[in-house]
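Hi V.,

You were right to ask for the full record rather than a summary. Here it is.
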Amino acid sequence: MRVFISIFLCTICTVLLAQTDVKTIDPVAFQTKINSLKNEQLIDVRTPEEFASGHLQNAVNINFYSSDFKEQLEKLDKTKPVMVYCKSGGRSGKAAIILKELGFTIVYNLADGVEGWKNKQLPVVK
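Predicted structure:
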C-alpha cells in the first residue's frame, strides 16, 4: 500500500511540476547543471537526520517539515537558480512548486532524489 501511495504522490507531483515550469532532471543532468552554474542555491529539503546521513556537496538543509519552511525559503535570492532535492523526489517536488509560487524564477528538481543520485554512484558528503 505504501508503494502505491508513493507512486501516486510522485505521479501527481510530476503532473503539477510540468504545469509550473519546474525543471525535473535526472541525477547526471542535475550534477552537470550544478557544475555549470556559478550562483545556484542547492537546497536539501530532508530532515536534519537525513541530511546528516549524506548530502550533496554545498547543499543547505531546509527541512520540509519545519513550521517555518516557507519563511526559510523566502530568505533565498529569487533571482538565482534554486536546485532542490530530497530522498526520492516527493518532498522536493512539492518544495519546487512552493518555490515557484513564492516567485523564484529558475527551479530545478532532482528526479528520484538523493536515492537516484546514489544509484548513479554520484558523490555525497557527511
